[in-house]
Hints:
The chain has a 5-stranded parallel β-sheet with strand order 2-3-1-4-5, with helices on both faces. The chain has helices spanning 16-25, 33-40, 46-55, 68-76, 79-102, 135-146, 150-159, 163-169, 180-195, and strands at residues 4-9, 29-32, 108-112, 127-132, 172-175. It is built from 9 helices and 5 strands, in the order βαβααααββαααβα.
Amino acid sequence: xxxxxxxxxxxxxxxxxxxxxxxxxxxxxxxxxxxxxxxxxxxxxxxxxxxxxxxxxxxxxxxxxxxxxxxxxxxxxxxxxxxxxxxxxxxxxxxxxxxxxxxxxxxxxxxxxxxxxxxxxxxxxxxxxxxxxxxxxxxxxxxxxxxxxxxxxxxxxxxxxxxxxxxxxxxxxxxxxxxxxxxxxxxxxxxxxxxxxxxxxx
Length: 202
């Protein structure tokens, strides 16, 4: 039987990756759209050539890889450029993700995406799990992890779906503002529940 797909999302600093790792440890196949986004812009892939042609060589590192921070500067203040980039990359990322999900072997497979709601990727999932934390926790964690200022984190938050919008799409919510042991137990509880589901619905 083909595995059903769980969409896993959460705002920046919500601990999506830590939760995802716990599911992987339990034997669940998982694809991360951020990783897929990195694959599609590897040197030699058509997307990278298109990006360099559009934005100029300054978005490439000397070794030919994408200079993410240079690209980010170009698009963060310019919505039209961001849309151009999204229109190029989203279909390519979706194709990578779909191919992985088609080959998944576990009873259900997880698609991790920070923009699951915004990009419409949630439509590919039979069920949505939102990792939720209060906004002040998101800001603290992200500032600490990425050495960003509060203003920079606010700008990233502004580009993502609001917490309310994410929660509105959620079938399940994991509040990830407690200690690691609690989160691991929650993942195990959800995993046991997911194994009982047929096609993602009770």
